[in-house]
Design brief:
InterPro entries: AAA+_ATPase, ABC_transporter-like_ATP-bd, FeS-cluster_ATPase_SufC, P-loop_NTPase. Belongs to the ABC transporter superfamily. Ycf16 family. This is Fe-S cluster assembly ATPase SufC. Pfam families: ABC_tran. Keywords: ATP-binding, Nucleotide-binding. The protein is α/β, with parallel strands linked by helices. The chain has a single domain, classed as P-loop containing nucleotide triphosphate hydrolases (Rossmann fold, 3-Layer(aba) Sandwich), CATH 3.40.50. About 35% of the residues lie in helices and about 30% in strands. It has eight helices and twelve strands. The protein has a six-stranded mixed beta sheet with strand order 6-9-10-3-11-12, sandwiched between helices. Strand 1 and strand 2 form a beta hairpin. The protein binds adenosine-5'-diphosphate and magnesium ion (2 copies).
Length: about 250
């Protein structure tokens, strides 16, 4: 599904990712934790192809293709979903219109017929209910005046509608209340599937109380310094990152 090998990336003059390796197979849920400034969000931005994030070395293979050879739109339509890719407000474009276009672009890529307005509306209403957003959110401008929690629910709604093969969620900076956290967790859990994988970037163990990861990785100073199962997250919660000890100091 996704194989990241020896990834080095910089922002402006600063080297941030410094030899990151990660492999995600179909159906797996990976959590990435790590201290502030470790490069977690940068990893997501690099994969999404955000401007200003420069790849210096390394490869990323996504479903058998070189990710960096793919246009941004192609990454999305080939099944890569980055929850933070669309946080911007797009006044004047309705949420529904925006999502219908994204969904139909994805379907076209897969060789499926485009959904009619009626068909899409039905699916969108169901997804809206699932994330507990009032239906008028479909008519509103994309993210226009949405609260943090509403943006989050909206992201999960996009995920449900787009049916991506790999979902990357960066939960680091969102002050989610427990309800919104549950929506994220339920959204992810409802979409778990042997053919779909998740990378969940999170500062806190809290979210992982609701989403049980198959693997937990610690990212520090631009690379994965430790990997384990869900118990690694519990250990981080209890002891912080100090337990990484010498190994951690070496990369600090
Ligand atoms: P994390 O998500 O793990 O907290 P980030 O990936 O956001 O870490 O940031 C990693 C490092 O890169 C930080 O030191 C941060 O200040 C720096 N950084 C991130 N984006 C930029 C940018 N656009 N310009 C300069 N430095 C940046
Ligand atoms: Mg941060
Ligand atoms: Mg971050």
């Amino acid at each position: 599904m996704l194989k990241i090998s020896n990834l080095h990336a910089r922002v402006e003059d600063k080297a941030i990712l410094q030899g990151l390796n990660l492999e995600v197979k179909p159906g797996e849920v990976h959590a990435i934790m790590g201290p502030n400034g470790a490069g977690k969000s940068t990893l997501g931005y690099v994969l999404s192809g955000r401007d200003g994030y420069e790849v210096e070395q390394g490869d990323v293979n996504f479903n058998g293709k070189d990710l960096f050879e793919m246009e941004i739109e192609e990454r999305a339509s080939s099944g890569l979903f980055l929850a933070f890719q669309y946080p911007v407000e797009i006044p004047g474009v309705s949420n529904m219109e925006f999502m219908k276009e994204s969904v139909n672009a994805t379907r076209e890529q897969r060789g499926e017929e485009a959904l009619s307005a009626t068909e899409f509306l039905k699916l969108a209403k169901e997804a809206c209910k699932q994330v507990q957003l009032p239906l008028d959110f479909l008519k509103r401008g994309v993210n226009e005046g949405f609260s943090g929690g509403e943006k989050k629910r909206n992201e999960i709604m996009q995920m449900i509608l787009l049916k991506p093969s790999l979902c990357i969620l960066d939960e680091s900076d969102s002050g989610l209340d427990v309800d919104a956290l549950q929506v994220v967790a339920n959204g992810v859990n409802s979409q778990r599937d042997p053919q779909r994988s998740f990378i969940i970037i999170t500062h806190y163990q809290r979210l992982l109380d609701y989403i049980k990861p198959d693997f937990v990785h610690i990212l520090a100073n631009g690379k994965i310094v430790k990997s384990g199962d869900a118990s690694l997250a519990l250990q981080v919660e209890k002891e912080g990152y100090a337990f990484l000890g010498k190994e951690f100091e070496e990369v600090s």
